[in-house]
Amino acid sequence: MKKKDYPLDKIRNIGFIAHIDAGKTTVTERILFYTGIVHQLGEVHEGTATMDWMDQEKERGITITSAAITCFWKDHRINIIDTPGHVDFTVEVERSLRVLDGAVVIFCGVAGVEPQSETVWHQADQYHIPRLAFVNKLDRVGADFDYTVQTIKSKLQPNSYPLQLPIYKEDNFIGVIDLVSEKTYIYGEEELGLKYQVENLKESEKISQDMKEKAEILRMTLIEKLSDYDEKVLQKFLGEETITPAEIMSAIRKATLSCDFIPILCGSALKNKALQMLIDAVVNYLPSPKDIPSIAAKKPNSDKIVKISVEETKFFSALAFKTPIDSYVGKLTYLRAYSGKINKGDHVLNVNTGKKERITRILHMHSNKHVNVDSISAGEISAVVGLDNTSSGDSITDKNHPVLLETIKFAEPVMSIAIEPKTKKDENDLETILPRLLEEDPTYYLIEDKDTGQTIISGMGELHLEILINRLHRDFKIEVNVGKPRVNFKETIVDKVNSQGILQRNVGGHGQFAQVNLKVEHYKVDSESTGQKILLENNASEEEVPKQFLPAVKAGIKESAAAGLLTGNEVQDLKVTIVGGAFSEVDSSDVAFKIASSIAFVNAIKKAKSVLLEPIMKITITSPDTYLGKVINDLNSRRGKVIKVKEKESIKIIDGSVPLRETFGYSTNLRSVSQGRASYSMEFYRYEQVAENISKQIIEKLRGYY
Ligand code: GDP
Ligand code: MG
User: Fold this and answer.
1) How far is the CA of 579 from the centre of ligand 1 (A)?
2) Lowest-pLDDT range, 370-374, 483-487, 529-533, 551-555?
3) Ligand 2 center to 605 CA (angstroms)
4) Confidence at residue 407, expressed as pLDDT on a 0 to 100 scale
5) What's the rounded mean pLDDT across residues 459-463?
6) What is the pLDDT of residue 86?
7) Is the CB of residue 339 less than 8 Å from the CB of residue 324?
8) Ligand 2 centroid vs 90 CA: distance in angstroms?
9) Which of 40, 135, 463, 547 is the most buried (most CB within 10 A)?
């Protein structure tokens, strides 16, 4: 099929990001519905629309899980990149943020800003992604648009301004006032939300005088703010001249693209209200690939930064961001192209592996089918077939012009589970399937326990691991016995020690000699920005440890730290200084220095006072007033801490922290102490030292485990 060409400025690569349950899936489905319907309006007979809707919905249930779905709206092509809402899948969020150009952040109009929304918001800040906010669920009892706007302003971005106001009729949410055009959009009884009535706000008899005044005030505040971003608006504002809707829209676009201003829209996905205006806003205010600044890349084996601008005429460069296995097509690789163009059948270079691969097919995933296309060019997102040796995060480029694009950061696995195949057949199947599944999601880690021969898988949380086990079971019919999930501890020391490691060996006539002296102390490393967990410094002189052996010395330390000593868990948060050593012209080698430094490091850890670190989660619990006492008691009994209790009418919102290890079975327990009325959400916060008495118990248990 020949694809219709969309110029770059008519393309939007966007994602919906949200706290779980805010309505991401529902909003996405509705958008696919409205864009699909418009696309095929001529073919849909009156009266059969409902049927289509249900059939499509069924199909969407599958396609919605694909990494990027393409849809069309008012001459624009919109690629919707899937971002999961659950904290266990942070890597997926990182991955999508890396490749999308703009995002819609969805909030629940009852709960306001929730913890995971804060996390993804800050992630999006890091990647400089222009956003708009959509306050969903305004049909619900207790929905409060003004409150939600306040929480967005106070917790996320003070420069957030509503572009709409909700309209209620006897407590029913029926539509929105558009502050930009000063029009009202009111939906009637028709359930699919395809029809709505448009009126001029000022003339409308359905809107109260109070509401009209409120709208007028908000509109003026919006325009005043926009004059910071747009010269024309500023002049007209100061001269008290009329500013046209088109001028306001152009200023909103500028402000939004600056990443320093958030337009807020509202609606109800479930009740099919105000979604069309949201899609309009995506097209009007979110960036096209042309609007994003050029991205930084490196030439292989060099630190030289090159800038890549999104242009079709340059050499091809793209980032692979997801590699799912499709049951019909086989291994798919999703590519975000940054520059150039390639055609089906072309050879490309995987810069990370150094291997050439051939692209045999290029696909667009529409809401209900795959569409074959001939090429992929700058700014686009497509799935390709044929890149069998490519993983997520790899750079794919023109075969003669390699560049490494900034890769994707992966989070720390905090929980593990042991699995054991039931039969010989299961064992064989597991051996072929597991590596494929692990490749799809690089935040699963496979550990082979050397002593027991057990297969241990590490991941982001209980649910993350559960999903992997379910897939083995359901998709591949592999039966496994599953151990209890356990959290991943770390170790550190709390004091400062000096140590020495000497290797002196004579094998035949030839000897091995090296000596390394270390100072090892507790030190909180900023691992987020450095990617390191141990800070290594060298104070030894050339006469003690020659420079050529330094890499070997460092490798010896890193390897022993990874193996752990107290419980077999990784040692981190240390500063290790090489303070001295000795070598021999004849007998010293890399291997000798590596062994000597590893001996010195182990000696230091043995001498020092070691402690366990455990993963701590940030938790937010929402509970009716009446159960507050019970909920807090329960949290305390899990070594949890209450940081703040906020109040919203008769609902209490508790912000706190709790060790991951104490959260097993928490949801059942919370339900039972609150008669099902309280809910919670959780995400990884940081590693913290375990209290000594508890540490002892855990170490004993772990020693039994290892
Ligand atoms: P996600 O976790 O963000 O993908 O949220 P879902 O789209 O799965 O929605 C979570 C729940 O909220 C589902 O039961 C939806 O039916 C419901 N929901 C979504 N949007 C709305 C809405 O606008 N109003 C109401 N009342 N419920 C909604
Ligand atoms: Mg969902």
Assistant:
1) 59
2) 529-533
3) 46
4) 67
5) 80
6) 53
7) no
8) 14
9) 135
Q: Which residue type occupies 478?
A: I
Q: Which numbered atom of ligand 1 lies nearest the CA of 136?
A: 23
Q: Is 22 in the pocket of ligand 1 (CB under 6 A)?
A: yes
Residue appearing with tokens 């141990």: 534
22 has pLDDT over 50: yes
Please enumerate, as own/partner, the contacts of 53-61 that have beta carbons within 8 Å and a separation of 24 or more. 53/192, 56/32, 56/367, 56/368, 57/29, 57/33, 59/367, 59/368, 60/29, 60/32, 60/367, 60/368
Asked if residue 23 has its Cβ within 6 Å of ligand 1, the reply is: yes
What is the percent of the chain with per-residue pLDDT over 90, rounded to a whole number? Answer: 48
- Which amino acid residue places its CA nearest to atom 19 of ligand 1? 23
- CA 138–ligand 1 middle distance (angstroms): 11
Is any atom of ligand 1 closer than 6 Å to the C-beta of 268?
A: yes
For residue 556 and ligand 1, the question of a CB distance below 6 A is answered with: no
Cα end-to-end distance, the chain, whole Å:
57
Tell me the per-residue pLDDT of 204-259, one tens digit each, with 9 for 90 and over. Answer: 999 999 999 999 999 999 999 999 999 999 999 999 999 999 999 999 999 999 99
Residue with the smallest CA separation from ligand 1 atom 9 is 23
Q: List residues, by chain if needed, whose CB lies under 5 Å from ion ligand 2.
A: 25
Average per-residue pLDDT in the chain?
Answer: 85
Residue with tokens 């709409």: 164
- The pLDDT tens digits for 352-399 are 888 999 999 999 877 556 789 999 999 999 999 999 888 888 899 999
Please determine, for residue 567, whether its predicted confidence score (pLDDT) is greater than 90: no
What's the chain's Rg over C-alpha atoms? 29
Find out whether 498 and 452 touch, Cβ atoms under 8 Å: no
pLDDT, residue 322, reads 83
For 548-691, list the strands marked E by DSSP.
Answer: 574-582, 610-624, 641-648, 651-659, 679-689
* Cα(270) to centroid(ligand 1), Å: 7
pTM over 0.90: no
Mutate to test the pocket of ligand 1, among 16, 17, 21, 139 (most ligand atoms within 8 A of CB): 21
Strands (E), 404-509: 404-405, 415-421, 445-448, 455-459, 480-482, 486-487, 490-493, 496-507
pLDDT at 311 over 80: yes
Does residue 136 line the site of ligand 1, with CB under 6 A?
Answer: yes
Q: pLDDT for 615-626, tens place per residue?
A: 998 888 888 889
Pairing status of strand 11-18 against strand 76-81: parallel
Reference 274, options 181, 378, 186, 391; nearest CA is 186
Choose which residue among 29, 82, 88, 270 to substitute to test ligand 1 binding: the one with the highest number of ligand atoms within 8 A of its C-beta.
270
Q: Give the model confidence (pLDDT) of 402-440 as tens digits.
A: 998 876 666 678 889 999 999 999 999 988 888 878 877
Sequence-ordered list of residues with C-beta below 8 angstroms from that of 107, at least 6 positions apart, any chain: 18, 19, 22, 113, 114, 117, 133, 134, 135, 136, 148, 151, 152
Could you tell which of 17, 24, 26 is best to mutate to test the pocket of ligand 1, judged by most ligand atoms within 8 Å of the CB? Answer: 26
Find the mean pLDDT for residues 481-486. 88
Distance separating alpha carbons of residues 113 and 134, to the nearest angstrom: 11
Predicted pLDDT at 42: 30
Q: What pLDDT digit, counting tens, does each position of 665-677 carry?
A: 887 888 889 887 8
- Pairwise CA distance, residues 502 & 590, whole Å: 14
DSSP code, position 527: H
CA dist 354 and 350 (Å) reads 6
Q: Is 137 in the pocket of ligand 1 (CB under 6 A)?
A: yes
Span from the CA of 108 to the centroid of ligand 1 (angstroms): 9
